[in-house]
Amino acid sequence: MSIKDRLSGNEAVAIAMRQINPDVMSAFPITPSTEIPQTFSSFVANGQVDTAFIPVESEHSAMSAAIGSQAAGARSLTATSSCGLALMWEVLYVAASNRLPIALALVNRTLSGPININCDHSDSMGARDSGWIQIYSENNQEAYDNFVQAYRIAEHAAVRLPIMICQDGFITSAAVENIELLADRDVQGFVGEYHPESYLLNSKQPLAIGPYAVSAYCMEAKRAQLEALKNAKQVTLDVAKEFAALSGREYGLFEEYKLADADYAMVIIGSAAGTAKDAVDQLRAAGQKVGLLKIRLFRPFPGEEIAAALQKSKVIACMDRTESFNGRCGPLGAEVKSALFDAQLMPPVINYVYGLGGRDVTVEDFITVFAQLAEIEQTNDGGKKYRYLSLRE
Amino acid sequence: MQNLIQIRWHGRGGQGAKTAALMLADVVFSTGKYVQGFPEYGPERMGAPITAYNRITDNKIRVHSNIYEPDYVVVVDETLFETVDVTKGLSKEGALIVNTARNKNEIEKLLNGYQGRIYTVDARRISMETLGRYFPNTPMLAAVVKVSGLMPDETFLNEMQQSLEQKFAGKPAVVEGNMQALKSTLQEVS
Predict the structure, then answer these.
(1) Cα separation of B30 and B34, whole Å?
(2) Does domain B5-188 have CATH number 3.40.920.10?
(3) Which residues of A touch B66 (CB under 8 A)?
(4) What ipTM is given for this predicted complex?
Protein backbone atom coordinates (compact mmCIF):
# COMPACT_ATOMS: atom_id res chain seq x y z
CA MET A 1 0.00 0.00 0.00
CA SER A 2 1.45 3.37 -0.89
CA ILE A 3 0.75 6.68 0.79
CA LYS A 4 0.92 9.76 -1.43
CA ASP A 5 2.60 12.69 0.26
CA ARG A 6 4.79 15.73 -0.42
CA LEU A 7 8.01 15.96 1.51
CA SER A 8 11.49 17.37 1.38
CA GLY A 9 14.31 14.85 1.01
CA ASN A 10 15.27 15.52 4.63
CA GLU A 11 11.75 14.76 5.87
CA ALA A 12 11.52 11.65 3.69
CA VAL A 13 14.69 10.14 5.18
CA ALA A 14 13.65 11.06 8.74
CA ILE A 15 10.35 9.23 8.13
CA ALA A 16 12.19 6.15 6.83
CA MET A 17 14.21 6.24 10.07
CA ARG A 18 11.02 6.49 12.14
CA GLN A 19 9.54 3.49 10.32
CA ILE A 20 12.74 1.48 10.88
CA ASN A 21 12.84 2.53 14.58
CA PRO A 22 16.56 1.85 15.13
CA ASP A 23 18.02 1.22 18.59
CA VAL A 24 20.43 4.17 18.67
CA MET A 25 20.89 7.43 16.79
CA SER A 26 23.94 9.47 17.66
CA ALA A 27 24.19 12.79 15.84
CA PHE A 28 25.58 16.27 16.04
CA PRO A 29 22.25 18.07 16.01
CA ILE A 30 22.99 21.45 14.36
CA THR A 31 24.84 22.87 11.33
CA PRO A 32 26.61 21.40 9.37
CA SER A 33 24.03 18.67 9.82
CA THR A 34 20.60 18.90 8.26
CA GLU A 35 16.98 18.78 9.38
CA ILE A 36 17.20 14.95 9.44
CA PRO A 37 18.39 14.60 13.09
CA GLN A 38 16.15 17.51 14.09
CA THR A 39 13.03 15.88 12.61
CA PHE A 40 13.98 12.45 13.92
CA SER A 41 14.61 13.78 17.43
CA SER A 42 11.02 15.11 17.45
CA PHE A 43 9.84 11.54 16.72
CA VAL A 44 11.91 10.42 19.72
CA ALA A 45 10.47 13.20 21.92
CA ASN A 46 6.92 12.35 20.84
CA GLY A 47 7.39 8.69 21.69
CA GLN A 48 6.84 7.58 18.07
CA VAL A 49 10.07 5.54 18.26
CA ASP A 50 11.95 4.04 21.20
CA THR A 51 15.38 4.92 19.79
CA ALA A 52 18.03 6.20 22.20
CA PHE A 53 18.99 9.60 20.72
CA ILE A 54 22.49 10.77 21.69
CA PRO A 55 23.14 14.44 20.84
CA VAL A 56 26.93 14.42 20.77
CA GLU A 57 29.36 17.35 20.65
CA SER A 58 30.96 16.54 17.29
CA GLU A 59 30.63 14.29 14.26
CA HIS A 60 33.76 12.40 15.30
CA SER A 61 31.86 11.53 18.47
CA ALA A 62 28.66 10.80 16.52
CA MET A 63 30.41 8.11 14.51
CA SER A 64 32.35 6.86 17.54
CA ALA A 65 29.12 6.47 19.54
CA ALA A 66 27.49 4.66 16.60
CA ILE A 67 30.49 2.33 16.43
CA GLY A 68 30.25 1.62 20.17
CA SER A 69 26.52 0.95 20.17
CA GLN A 70 26.61 -1.12 16.98
CA ALA A 71 29.48 -3.22 18.38
CA ALA A 72 27.43 -3.69 21.55
CA GLY A 73 24.66 -5.21 19.39
CA ALA A 74 22.35 -2.25 18.76
CA ARG A 75 21.14 -1.20 15.28
CA SER A 76 22.65 2.28 14.99
CA LEU A 77 22.63 5.19 12.62
CA THR A 78 23.70 8.78 12.19
CA ALA A 79 23.19 11.63 9.74
CA THR A 80 25.49 14.38 8.59
CA SER A 81 26.61 16.59 5.71
CA SER A 82 29.67 18.32 4.27
CA CYS A 83 32.41 19.09 6.82
CA GLY A 84 30.49 16.95 9.33
CA LEU A 85 31.46 13.90 7.28
CA ALA A 86 35.01 15.21 7.02
CA LEU A 87 35.23 15.33 10.81
CA MET A 88 34.13 11.66 10.93
CA TRP A 89 36.91 10.63 8.56
CA GLU A 90 39.18 8.79 10.96
CA VAL A 91 36.39 6.70 12.47
CA LEU A 92 34.64 5.89 9.17
CA TYR A 93 37.49 3.46 8.57
CA VAL A 94 37.04 1.98 12.06
CA ALA A 95 33.32 1.32 11.42
CA ALA A 96 34.10 -0.41 8.12
CA SER A 97 37.11 -2.45 9.23
CA ASN A 98 35.22 -3.72 12.29
CA ARG A 99 32.39 -4.83 9.96
CA LEU A 100 29.72 -2.77 11.72
CA PRO A 101 26.58 -2.31 9.58
CA ILE A 102 25.84 1.29 10.63
CA ALA A 103 23.63 3.38 8.32
CA LEU A 104 24.53 7.01 7.60
CA ALA A 105 22.16 9.47 5.93
CA LEU A 106 24.42 11.85 4.03
CA VAL A 107 23.28 15.10 2.46
CA ASN A 108 25.94 15.93 -0.13
CA ARG A 109 27.33 19.42 0.31
CA THR A 110 30.66 20.93 -0.64
CA LEU A 111 33.76 21.14 1.53
CA SER A 112 35.22 24.61 2.11
CA GLY A 113 36.80 26.67 0.77
CA PRO A 114 35.84 29.03 -0.59
CA ILE A 115 33.23 28.94 2.18
CA ASN A 116 30.05 27.62 0.60
CA ILE A 117 27.15 25.56 1.91
CA ASN A 118 25.66 24.20 -1.30
CA CYS A 119 25.60 20.91 -3.15
CA ASP A 120 28.45 19.01 -4.64
CA HIS A 121 29.84 15.54 -4.02
CA SER A 122 33.24 16.43 -2.53
CA ASP A 123 32.23 15.16 0.95
CA SER A 124 31.21 11.59 0.04
CA MET A 125 33.68 11.26 -2.83
CA GLY A 126 36.48 12.01 -0.38
CA ALA A 127 35.20 9.12 1.78
CA ARG A 128 34.84 6.68 -1.12
CA ASP A 129 37.85 4.59 -0.10
CA SER A 130 36.90 4.27 3.58
CA GLY A 131 35.31 0.85 3.05
CA TRP A 132 31.67 1.98 3.27
CA ILE A 133 28.98 0.95 0.83
CA GLN A 134 27.85 4.10 -1.03
CA ILE A 135 24.44 4.52 -2.66
CA TYR A 136 23.32 7.76 -4.37
CA SER A 137 19.79 9.09 -4.90
CA GLU A 138 18.25 11.24 -7.64
CA ASN A 139 15.28 12.62 -5.69
CA ASN A 140 13.38 12.43 -2.39
CA GLN A 141 11.69 9.18 -3.45
CA GLU A 142 15.00 7.46 -4.09
CA ALA A 143 16.52 8.81 -0.86
CA TYR A 144 13.59 7.29 1.03
CA ASP A 145 13.58 4.00 -0.89
CA ASN A 146 17.36 3.62 -0.59
CA PHE A 147 17.26 4.23 3.14
CA VAL A 148 14.54 1.60 3.59
CA GLN A 149 16.80 -0.88 1.76
CA ALA A 150 20.00 0.17 3.57
CA TYR A 151 20.04 -2.20 6.55
CA ARG A 152 19.02 -5.21 4.46
CA ILE A 153 22.21 -4.70 2.42
CA ALA A 154 24.52 -3.66 5.27
CA GLU A 155 23.46 -6.36 7.76
CA HIS A 156 23.46 -9.25 5.27
CA ALA A 157 25.67 -12.08 6.57
CA ALA A 158 27.84 -11.95 3.44
CA VAL A 159 28.40 -8.19 3.82
CA ARG A 160 28.27 -6.74 7.37
CA LEU A 161 29.56 -3.33 6.40
CA PRO A 162 28.42 0.23 7.04
CA ILE A 163 26.34 1.97 4.37
CA MET A 164 26.07 5.60 3.32
CA ILE A 165 22.84 6.73 1.62
CA CYS A 166 23.54 9.99 -0.23
CA GLN A 167 21.27 12.70 -1.63
CA ASP A 168 22.01 16.15 -3.05
CA GLY A 169 22.13 19.00 -0.54
CA PHE A 170 19.31 21.56 -0.88
CA ILE A 171 18.46 20.40 -4.43
CA THR A 172 16.60 17.39 -3.07
CA SER A 173 17.19 17.63 0.70
CA ALA A 174 15.37 20.98 1.08
CA ALA A 175 13.01 20.71 -1.91
CA VAL A 176 9.42 19.64 -1.34
CA GLU A 177 8.24 17.19 -4.00
CA ASN A 178 5.64 14.45 -4.40
CA ILE A 179 6.54 11.09 -2.90
CA GLU A 180 4.95 7.70 -2.24
CA LEU A 181 5.61 6.27 1.20
CA LEU A 182 5.19 2.70 2.36
CA ALA A 183 3.02 1.81 5.35
CA ASP A 184 4.93 1.62 8.66
CA ARG A 185 4.29 -2.11 9.09
CA ASP A 186 5.45 -2.82 5.51
CA VAL A 187 8.77 -1.11 6.20
CA GLN A 188 9.12 -2.89 9.54
CA GLY A 189 8.35 -6.24 7.90
CA PHE A 190 10.83 -5.54 5.09
CA VAL A 191 13.70 -4.37 7.28
CA GLY A 192 13.09 -6.91 10.08
CA GLU A 193 14.61 -7.15 13.55
CA TYR A 194 18.38 -6.94 14.01
CA HIS A 195 19.91 -10.13 15.38
CA PRO A 196 23.71 -9.84 15.19
CA GLU A 197 25.67 -13.08 15.27
CA SER A 198 28.41 -11.63 17.47
CA TYR A 199 28.17 -8.59 19.73
CA LEU A 200 29.88 -7.22 22.83
CA LEU A 201 26.92 -7.48 25.20
CA ASN A 202 26.58 -11.22 24.62
CA SER A 203 28.00 -12.64 27.88
CA LYS A 204 27.96 -16.19 26.46
CA GLN A 205 30.43 -15.26 23.76
CA PRO A 206 33.22 -13.01 25.07
CA LEU A 207 34.61 -10.96 22.22
CA ALA A 208 37.19 -8.30 21.42
CA ILE A 209 36.37 -5.76 18.71
CA GLY A 210 38.99 -3.56 17.12
CA PRO A 211 42.23 -4.96 18.57
CA TYR A 212 45.70 -4.23 17.22
CA ALA A 213 46.54 -6.24 14.10
CA VAL A 214 50.24 -6.88 13.63
CA SER A 215 51.66 -6.76 10.11
CA ALA A 216 51.30 -10.51 9.82
CA TYR A 217 47.48 -10.16 9.95
CA CYS A 218 46.59 -6.64 8.82
CA MET A 219 46.66 -7.41 5.09
CA GLU A 220 44.51 -10.50 5.50
CA ALA A 221 41.95 -8.47 7.43
CA LYS A 222 41.79 -5.87 4.64
CA ARG A 223 41.48 -8.59 1.99
CA ALA A 224 38.57 -10.18 3.89
CA GLN A 225 36.95 -6.73 4.18
CA LEU A 226 37.23 -6.29 0.41
CA GLU A 227 35.52 -9.63 -0.16
CA ALA A 228 32.59 -8.51 1.99
CA LEU A 229 32.34 -5.22 0.09
CA LYS A 230 32.35 -7.04 -3.25
CA ASN A 231 29.49 -9.24 -1.97
CA ALA A 232 27.42 -6.09 -1.45
CA LYS A 233 26.87 -5.92 -5.22
CA GLN A 234 24.78 -9.09 -5.47
CA VAL A 235 23.06 -8.39 -2.15
CA THR A 236 22.06 -4.91 -3.39
CA LEU A 237 20.40 -6.54 -6.41
CA ASP A 238 18.65 -9.20 -4.31
CA VAL A 239 17.33 -6.62 -1.85
CA ALA A 240 16.16 -4.40 -4.74
CA LYS A 241 14.18 -7.31 -6.14
CA GLU A 242 12.36 -7.83 -2.85
CA PHE A 243 11.81 -4.09 -2.55
CA ALA A 244 10.25 -3.99 -6.03
CA ALA A 245 7.81 -6.72 -5.01
CA LEU A 246 6.80 -4.59 -2.02
CA SER A 247 6.77 -1.12 -3.58
CA GLY A 248 6.52 -1.57 -7.34
CA ARG A 249 9.65 0.59 -7.71
CA GLU A 250 12.65 -1.07 -9.35
CA TYR A 251 16.30 -0.41 -8.58
CA GLY A 252 19.57 -1.90 -9.82
CA LEU A 253 23.27 -1.16 -9.49
CA PHE A 254 22.63 1.74 -11.86
CA GLU A 255 19.81 3.00 -14.06
CA GLU A 256 19.98 2.86 -17.84
CA TYR A 257 17.87 5.53 -19.50
CA LYS A 258 17.43 5.12 -23.27
CA LEU A 259 20.98 3.76 -23.29
CA ALA A 260 20.63 0.48 -25.26
CA ASP A 261 21.02 2.04 -28.74
CA ALA A 262 22.62 5.34 -27.71
CA ASP A 263 25.57 6.61 -29.73
CA TYR A 264 26.30 9.26 -27.11
CA ALA A 265 26.09 8.32 -23.46
CA MET A 266 26.28 10.34 -20.27
CA VAL A 267 27.28 8.81 -16.92
CA ILE A 268 26.03 10.87 -13.98
CA ILE A 269 25.22 10.74 -10.25
CA GLY A 270 22.46 12.35 -8.20
CA SER A 271 19.76 14.97 -8.78
CA ALA A 272 21.19 16.29 -12.05
CA ALA A 273 20.36 12.92 -13.62
CA GLY A 274 16.69 13.97 -13.65
CA THR A 275 17.55 17.20 -15.46
CA ALA A 276 19.73 15.24 -17.90
CA LYS A 277 16.84 12.82 -18.64
CA ASP A 278 14.77 15.79 -19.82
CA ALA A 279 17.69 16.71 -22.13
CA VAL A 280 17.79 13.11 -23.42
CA ASP A 281 14.05 13.22 -24.18
CA GLN A 282 14.35 16.53 -26.04
CA LEU A 283 17.22 15.22 -28.18
CA ARG A 284 15.50 11.86 -28.80
CA ALA A 285 12.44 13.78 -30.02
CA ALA A 286 14.79 15.47 -32.52
CA GLY A 287 16.01 12.04 -33.68
CA GLN A 288 19.34 11.92 -31.84
CA LYS A 289 20.47 8.66 -30.28
CA VAL A 290 21.48 9.79 -26.81
CA GLY A 291 21.19 8.00 -23.47
CA LEU A 292 22.15 8.09 -19.85
CA LEU A 293 23.58 5.85 -17.15
CA LYS A 294 22.82 6.96 -13.61
CA ILE A 295 25.04 5.54 -10.86
CA ARG A 296 23.20 4.15 -7.83
CA LEU A 297 25.89 1.95 -6.23
CA PHE A 298 29.30 3.69 -6.27
CA ARG A 299 31.01 1.47 -3.65
CA PRO A 300 31.56 -1.29 -4.52
CA PHE A 301 31.90 0.07 -8.07
CA PRO A 302 30.11 -2.15 -10.60
CA GLY A 303 32.77 -1.62 -13.26
CA GLU A 304 32.19 -4.73 -15.38
CA GLU A 305 28.45 -4.15 -15.55
CA ILE A 306 28.91 -0.48 -16.43
CA ALA A 307 31.43 -1.28 -19.17
CA ALA A 308 28.97 -3.82 -20.61
CA ALA A 309 26.15 -1.26 -20.55
CA LEU A 310 28.35 1.30 -22.35
CA GLN A 311 29.86 -1.07 -24.94
CA LYS A 312 27.88 0.32 -27.88
CA SER A 313 28.40 3.98 -27.01
CA LYS A 314 30.57 5.85 -29.49
CA VAL A 315 31.42 8.82 -27.27
CA ILE A 316 30.89 9.04 -23.50
CA ALA A 317 30.57 11.97 -21.08
CA CYS A 318 31.39 11.32 -17.41
CA MET A 319 29.92 13.96 -15.14
CA ASP A 320 31.79 14.63 -11.90
CA ARG A 321 30.32 16.91 -9.23
CA THR A 322 33.66 17.22 -7.47
CA GLU A 323 37.23 18.22 -8.29
CA SER A 324 39.83 15.64 -7.32
CA PHE A 325 42.86 17.75 -8.24
CA ASN A 326 44.74 15.09 -10.16
CA GLY A 327 44.56 17.26 -13.28
CA ARG A 328 43.16 14.47 -15.47
CA CYS A 329 39.75 13.38 -14.22
CA GLY A 330 37.29 13.24 -11.36
CA PRO A 331 36.47 10.14 -9.27
CA LEU A 332 33.64 8.98 -11.55
CA GLY A 333 35.70 9.62 -14.69
CA ALA A 334 38.61 7.60 -13.29
CA GLU A 335 36.36 4.66 -12.37
CA VAL A 336 34.51 4.57 -15.68
CA LYS A 337 37.68 4.89 -17.79
CA SER A 338 39.38 2.15 -15.80
CA ALA A 339 36.34 -0.13 -16.22
CA LEU A 340 36.25 0.50 -19.98
CA PHE A 341 40.01 -0.12 -20.30
CA ASP A 342 39.74 -3.49 -18.52
CA ALA A 343 36.90 -4.43 -20.87
CA GLN A 344 39.16 -3.40 -23.80
CA LEU A 345 36.75 -0.67 -24.85
CA MET A 346 38.41 2.52 -26.05
CA PRO A 347 35.73 5.10 -26.92
CA PRO A 348 36.56 8.79 -26.40
CA VAL A 349 35.55 9.67 -22.82
CA ILE A 350 35.15 13.33 -21.92
CA ASN A 351 35.15 14.02 -18.20
CA TYR A 352 33.12 17.10 -17.22
CA VAL A 353 33.23 18.79 -13.83
CA TYR A 354 29.91 20.52 -13.10
CA GLY A 355 27.76 21.93 -10.32
CA LEU A 356 30.51 22.69 -7.79
CA GLY A 357 29.35 24.64 -4.73
CA GLY A 358 25.74 24.47 -5.91
CA ARG A 359 26.31 25.90 -9.43
CA ASP A 360 23.01 25.35 -11.18
CA VAL A 361 22.93 22.92 -14.08
CA THR A 362 20.13 23.10 -16.65
CA VAL A 363 18.60 20.99 -19.41
CA GLU A 364 20.34 23.32 -21.88
CA ASP A 365 23.73 22.65 -20.25
CA PHE A 366 23.28 18.93 -20.85
CA ILE A 367 22.13 19.50 -24.43
CA THR A 368 25.45 21.34 -24.91
CA VAL A 369 27.33 18.32 -23.55
CA PHE A 370 25.61 15.94 -25.99
CA ALA A 371 26.30 18.38 -28.85
CA GLN A 372 29.99 18.30 -27.94
CA LEU A 373 29.97 14.48 -27.93
CA ALA A 374 28.40 14.46 -31.42
CA GLU A 375 30.99 16.96 -32.65
CA ILE A 376 33.81 14.77 -31.34
CA GLU A 377 32.52 11.79 -33.30
CA GLN A 378 31.94 13.78 -36.49
CA THR A 379 35.29 15.56 -36.49
CA ASN A 380 37.23 12.65 -34.98
CA ASP A 381 38.87 15.24 -32.76
CA GLY A 382 38.63 14.46 -29.05
CA GLY A 383 39.89 17.85 -27.94
CA LYS A 384 40.33 18.35 -24.24
CA LYS A 385 39.40 15.26 -22.25
CA TYR A 386 38.86 17.15 -19.02
CA ARG A 387 36.43 20.06 -19.10
CA TYR A 388 34.44 22.35 -16.80
CA LEU A 389 30.74 22.74 -17.68
CA SER A 390 29.18 26.23 -17.72
CA LEU A 391 32.24 27.85 -16.19
CA ARG A 392 32.30 31.67 -16.32
CA GLU A 393 35.53 32.51 -18.15
CA MET B 1 5.48 18.43 -18.92
CA GLN B 2 1.83 19.27 -19.46
CA ASN B 3 0.33 22.50 -18.11
CA LEU B 4 3.59 23.47 -16.46
CA ILE B 5 3.40 26.56 -14.26
CA GLN B 6 6.67 28.02 -12.99
CA ILE B 7 6.92 30.62 -10.23
CA ARG B 8 9.91 32.57 -8.93
CA TRP B 9 9.91 34.27 -5.53
CA HIS B 10 12.19 37.19 -4.63
CA GLY B 11 12.53 38.13 -0.99
CA ARG B 12 15.03 38.85 1.73
CA GLY B 13 16.26 36.34 4.30
CA GLY B 14 13.83 36.28 7.23
CA GLN B 15 10.71 37.39 5.31
CA GLY B 16 9.52 33.86 4.66
CA ALA B 17 9.72 33.68 0.84
CA LYS B 18 11.14 30.15 1.09
CA THR B 19 8.40 29.13 3.54
CA ALA B 20 5.78 30.61 1.21
CA ALA B 21 7.13 28.57 -1.72
CA LEU B 22 7.02 25.40 0.38
CA MET B 23 3.50 26.23 1.61
CA LEU B 24 2.37 26.80 -1.98
CA ALA B 25 3.76 23.37 -2.95
CA ASP B 26 1.89 21.93 0.02
CA VAL B 27 -1.46 23.46 -0.81
CA VAL B 28 -1.23 22.73 -4.54
CA PHE B 29 -0.32 19.09 -3.80
CA SER B 30 -3.71 18.74 -2.15
CA THR B 31 -5.38 19.40 -5.52
CA GLY B 32 -3.70 16.31 -6.97
CA LYS B 33 -0.89 18.05 -8.87
CA TYR B 34 2.81 17.30 -9.03
CA VAL B 35 4.77 20.03 -7.28
CA GLN B 36 8.23 21.30 -6.50
CA GLY B 37 9.03 23.98 -3.94
CA PHE B 38 12.67 24.80 -3.31
CA PRO B 39 14.94 27.61 -2.13
CA GLU B 40 18.17 28.97 -3.56
CA TYR B 41 20.44 30.11 -0.78
CA GLY B 42 22.90 32.93 -1.11
CA PRO B 43 24.89 34.17 1.88
CA GLU B 44 23.13 32.92 5.03
CA ARG B 45 22.08 36.07 6.83
CA MET B 46 18.95 38.04 7.61
CA GLY B 47 18.15 40.57 4.92
CA ALA B 48 20.20 39.05 2.10
CA PRO B 49 18.30 38.59 -1.19
CA ILE B 50 16.97 35.05 -1.53
CA THR B 51 15.14 33.30 -4.34
CA ALA B 52 12.69 30.42 -4.11
CA TYR B 53 10.88 28.50 -6.82
CA ASN B 54 7.78 26.44 -7.61
CA ARG B 55 6.99 24.08 -10.45
CA ILE B 56 3.42 22.84 -10.73
CA THR B 57 2.26 20.36 -13.35
CA ASP B 58 0.14 17.26 -14.09
CA ASN B 59 3.14 14.94 -14.56
CA LYS B 60 6.07 13.74 -12.53
CA ILE B 61 8.80 16.42 -12.39
CA ARG B 62 12.37 15.27 -13.05
CA VAL B 63 14.20 18.53 -13.70
CA HIS B 64 16.22 19.83 -10.76
CA SER B 65 17.42 23.22 -11.92
CA ASN B 66 16.43 26.76 -11.04
CA ILE B 67 13.73 28.55 -13.06
CA TYR B 68 14.87 31.08 -15.67
CA GLU B 69 11.62 31.62 -17.62
CA PRO B 70 8.89 31.85 -14.98
CA ASP B 71 5.19 32.37 -15.61
CA TYR B 72 4.84 34.38 -12.42
CA VAL B 73 7.27 36.37 -10.31
CA VAL B 74 6.43 37.33 -6.73
CA VAL B 75 8.36 40.23 -5.20
CA VAL B 76 8.03 40.03 -1.42
CA ASP B 77 10.32 43.03 -0.81
CA GLU B 78 10.12 46.00 -3.16
CA THR B 79 13.58 47.31 -2.22
CA LEU B 80 14.88 44.42 -4.36
CA PHE B 81 13.97 46.42 -7.49
CA GLU B 82 17.15 48.42 -6.86
CA THR B 83 19.47 45.40 -7.07
CA VAL B 84 17.70 42.46 -8.74
CA ASP B 85 16.28 42.29 -12.29
CA VAL B 86 13.08 40.68 -11.03
CA THR B 87 11.35 40.43 -14.43
CA LYS B 88 14.29 38.66 -16.09
CA GLY B 89 12.91 35.86 -18.25
CA LEU B 90 9.35 36.50 -17.05
CA SER B 91 6.72 35.43 -19.58
CA LYS B 92 4.69 38.27 -21.17
CA GLU B 93 1.61 36.08 -20.76
CA GLY B 94 2.37 35.73 -17.06
CA ALA B 95 2.40 38.35 -14.36
CA LEU B 96 4.49 40.21 -11.82
CA ILE B 97 3.03 40.34 -8.30
CA VAL B 98 4.49 42.96 -5.96
CA ASN B 99 4.13 43.70 -2.26
CA THR B 100 3.85 47.50 -2.28
CA ALA B 101 1.71 50.41 -1.17
CA ARG B 102 2.62 52.25 -4.38
CA ASN B 103 0.45 52.22 -7.49
CA LYS B 104 1.19 50.21 -10.61
CA ASN B 105 2.48 53.14 -12.68
CA GLU B 106 5.22 53.78 -10.17
CA ILE B 107 6.20 50.10 -10.16
CA GLU B 108 6.19 49.99 -13.97
CA LYS B 109 8.85 52.71 -14.07
CA LEU B 110 11.19 50.52 -12.00
CA LEU B 111 11.05 47.63 -14.50
CA ASN B 112 13.14 47.04 -17.60
CA GLY B 113 10.20 47.58 -19.97
CA TYR B 114 8.27 44.50 -18.84
CA GLN B 115 5.22 44.12 -21.11
CA GLY B 116 3.09 41.72 -19.05
CA ARG B 117 0.52 42.24 -16.33
CA ILE B 118 1.42 43.77 -12.99
CA TYR B 119 -0.49 43.12 -9.78
CA THR B 120 0.06 44.83 -6.45
CA VAL B 121 -1.04 44.26 -2.89
CA ASP B 122 -0.06 46.07 0.31
CA ALA B 123 1.04 43.00 2.26
CA ARG B 124 2.65 45.15 4.94
CA ARG B 125 -0.62 46.86 5.86
CA ILE B 126 -2.60 43.60 5.67
CA SER B 127 -0.05 41.79 7.82
CA MET B 128 0.06 44.57 10.44
CA GLU B 129 -3.77 44.73 10.55
CA THR B 130 -4.32 40.98 10.83
CA LEU B 131 -1.22 39.64 12.59
CA GLY B 132 0.10 42.75 14.31
CA ARG B 133 3.55 41.99 12.90
CA TYR B 134 5.21 42.11 9.50
CA PHE B 135 4.95 38.65 7.91
CA PRO B 136 4.50 39.43 4.20
CA ASN B 137 4.68 35.83 3.03
CA THR B 138 1.13 34.80 3.96
CA PRO B 139 -0.53 37.61 1.95
CA MET B 140 1.84 37.03 -1.00
CA LEU B 141 0.91 33.34 -1.01
CA ALA B 142 -2.77 34.30 -1.36
CA ALA B 143 -1.87 36.85 -4.05
CA VAL B 144 -0.10 34.33 -6.27
CA VAL B 145 -2.94 31.81 -5.90
CA LYS B 146 -5.47 34.49 -6.87
CA VAL B 147 -3.55 35.89 -9.83
CA SER B 148 -2.54 32.50 -11.26
CA GLY B 149 -5.95 30.92 -10.70
CA LEU B 150 -4.22 27.76 -9.45
CA MET B 151 -7.31 26.81 -7.48
CA PRO B 152 -10.64 28.31 -6.40
CA ASP B 153 -10.46 30.70 -3.41
CA GLU B 154 -12.61 28.39 -1.30
CA THR B 155 -10.42 25.31 -1.87
CA PHE B 156 -7.34 27.37 -1.07
CA LEU B 157 -8.81 28.77 2.16
CA ASN B 158 -9.99 25.34 3.31
CA GLU B 159 -6.59 23.78 2.71
CA MET B 160 -4.80 26.66 4.42
CA GLN B 161 -7.12 26.48 7.43
CA GLN B 162 -6.25 22.80 7.91
CA SER B 163 -2.55 23.33 7.32
CA LEU B 164 -2.32 26.31 9.71
CA GLU B 165 -4.29 24.49 12.41
CA GLN B 166 -1.76 21.68 12.20
CA LYS B 167 1.26 24.00 12.18
CA PHE B 168 0.03 26.32 14.95
CA ALA B 169 -1.85 23.84 17.13
CA GLY B 170 -2.65 25.60 20.41
CA LYS B 171 -2.28 29.09 18.89
CA PRO B 172 -5.78 29.85 17.53
CA ALA B 173 -5.04 33.59 17.33
CA VAL B 174 -2.18 32.97 14.90
CA VAL B 175 -4.39 30.73 12.75
CA GLU B 176 -7.18 33.32 12.78
CA GLY B 177 -4.81 36.19 11.93
CA ASN B 178 -3.25 34.32 9.04
CA MET B 179 -6.62 33.29 7.66
CA GLN B 180 -7.79 36.91 7.81
CA ALA B 181 -4.60 37.99 6.00
CA LEU B 182 -5.30 35.45 3.24
CA LYS B 183 -8.94 36.55 2.86
CA SER B 184 -8.07 40.27 2.75
CA THR B 185 -5.40 39.63 0.12
CA LEU B 186 -7.71 37.57 -2.09
CA GLN B 187 -10.02 40.62 -2.20
CA GLU B 188 -7.44 43.36 -2.44
CA VAL B 189 -4.82 42.11 -4.92
CA SER B 190 -5.37 43.82 -8.26
Answers:
(1) 10
(2) yes
(3) 360, 362
(4) 0.93
